[in-house]
Structures are given as C-alpha cells and as structure tokens.
Prior knowledge:
Blueprint (H helix, E strand, L loop, with lengths): L10 H17 L5 H5 L8 H13 L3 E2 L8 E2 L1 H10 L8 H10 L6 H16 L2 E5 L7 E10 L2 E8 L4 E7 L6 H15 L4 H14 L6 H20 L3 E4 L7 H4 L2 H12 L1 H12 L5 E4 L11 E9 L5 E10 L4 H19 L1
Antiparallel strand pairs: 1-2, 3-7, 3-10, 4-5, 5-6, 8-9, 9-10
Helix pairs in contact: 1-3, 5-6, 5-13, 6-13, 7-9, 8-9
Pfam family, one: HrcA
Function: Negative regulator of class I heat shock genes (grpE-dnaK-dnaJ and groELS operons). Prevents heat-shock induction of these operons.
Keywords: Coiled coil, Repressor, Stress response, Transcription, Transcription regulation
Amino acid sequence: MSITPISELNDRARDVFRLVVESYLGTGLPVGSRTISKMASLSLSPASIRNVMQDLEELGLLAAPHTSAGRMPTETGLRLFVDGMMQAAEPSPEERRAIEAGIVENGPIEEALSAATATLSGLSACAGIVMVPKREPVLRQFGFVPLNARQALAVLVGQDGSVENRVLDLPEGVSPIALNEAANFMSARFGGLTLRQAGEALAREMELERHALDNSARDLAARGLAIWSHDADDRPVLIVRGQSHLLDDSAAADLERARQLLEQLEGKQEILDLLRGALAGSATKIFIGSENKLFSLSGSSVIAAPYRGADGRVVGVVGVIGPTRLNYARVIPMVDFTAQTLSRLMR
C-alpha cells in the first residue's frame, strides 16, 4: 500500500492521528475516541473523532484490532508518523553520559562495542545490536606449547597485545624441537603481517623452497596459520545484548510473537544481512515490522545507525530491535548519538 502524504491530511485528521499514535506508543493499547476527546489539546466531540478515525482507517493508517476496541496505528501509519510528524528529542545529558561512560576506550574494540550495546539496550529497553568491523590482527609472536603426544596449544600474540590460543592436532611423531623451530620461524618471518599476508608469504616460500624448516615444522606453521585464519572467517561479527527486554509485560500477552522474535535473534546471519543494508548510508535507518521480511511475523522494528573508522569510512552498524510501539522520538536520537560516540572512539 502506498503511504498517504501527510500534506493530504487536514489539520483535524493530523491532530487525531498524532494523538492516537502517541497514546499507542506510550501504552501499547488501542485508543478509543472518548480517550482522545478528553485530551486538552483537542476540542472535538467523541462522535466527530470517531468519524475522523474511520477516515484514517480507510486510508490504511489506523486499524481496529477488535470490534469497539479503539484504534491503533498500522505499520503504514507508523511509517507516516516517523517520517513526517514525529518531533525527535535529543538524548538527555544523563543519557549522553551513560552512553559515553559505557564505552571503554582502553582494551579490545570488541569490549567497547559490547559495552556500548549493553548500555544502549538498557536505556532503550530494547535488544541492543552492533555489527563488529572485520579486522585482521597484526601478528607479533607465535608459540606452540605441547599438551600431549598428539596435541599442542598454538599461541598467537598480536601487535596490540592481544593473545589468542587454539588447540592444534599434531601429526604423529612431532617433537618439541619441531614445535620450537616452527614458532621461531613464524615469529621471525611473519611478525608485522596480518594472517592473510602471513599465509601468502608462507605459500611463496614453500613454492620456491626457500624455507629452512624440515617437513614436520613446515607443516606445523601451515596448520597454525590455517586454524587462526579459519577461526577469523567464522568469528561472529554481531553482538546482541539485552534480549530479556523483549519479554516485557506487553510481550507476555503475546508469547508467540516474543518467541518468534527471540528465534529471529538467534539467526545472526539474517540480522547481519539486514544491517548491511544500513552500511551503505550515512544516516540512521528505521525498519518497521513487515517492511523487512525477517521481522514480519514478530512485528518488530529495527533502528540502526552506521559508525565510522579512523579513515572516515563506515565500518559497522549499531542499533536496537524492539516492538513496533517503540518510543521512536527518544530512541532514534539515542542510537544516532551512540553511533557518533563510537565513531569518535575509532579515530
């Protein structure tokens, strides 16, 4: 259905529509004409309001979930409200301080992103999500620690001081000397390179037979690089925090919707595909209900804003997932401010 332009609604229709939407977003309940008539800003009788609400329903902006139960905005109506009528409120000083304090500047970037997501989740009462930028560690040192005759602990130390361990299966007969040789070779040759660059360099040396390793040590070097590279490819690039916020009192009345939403959050690849759509833009994006097929069944909304790296390019997306009756005027600026704060951190 095409969305009715806000300019085509007369003043009376706009006022009634705005009050219905704001009341619904605040309570999650359908709004009746008598409730609207008692609001001081509107001097219309309940009968006149009912007629206006009927007209708005015929335009596809309002719907009546049950007979004589009042009206609530449709997804089309919510889109019209967000795009054309909503007055966004800047985050309060307290909210700004909470977001900035929740982002730890020292330590791995993943920790800062996770903290930012948890803070945003708590402030918005939604599930917080962040797409972590893919980045390859720059290598400094390698080590192999024997565990038993068939396994060793492969240790990678990054230039940023990060340490990662992986259990590596060993071919039969590998000696501690071979483990030490492979570690020394890898540290000397691959220090300062990324995993991809190290793998390419090892492949070139093996092809040209310029290596000074025996077969077992050479195999260890290849295995060590392969296990880290494989893990880096499979590493989650989506952090989700605060799923419990989705099980509020309103969700308890519709457990099936809540169950579907939680299941959708488990399908991280699908959410990543959705968020990648926000990578291309420079502004906050809002997906309401069935505007995105992923959340069409649960009736959920996504607000997502891109954040930038040191070179000014968009490297990730931060946002929230919640019910369609979000307080959009408050949450949208909050998501936008979190993205701006992350961008400053990444510089």
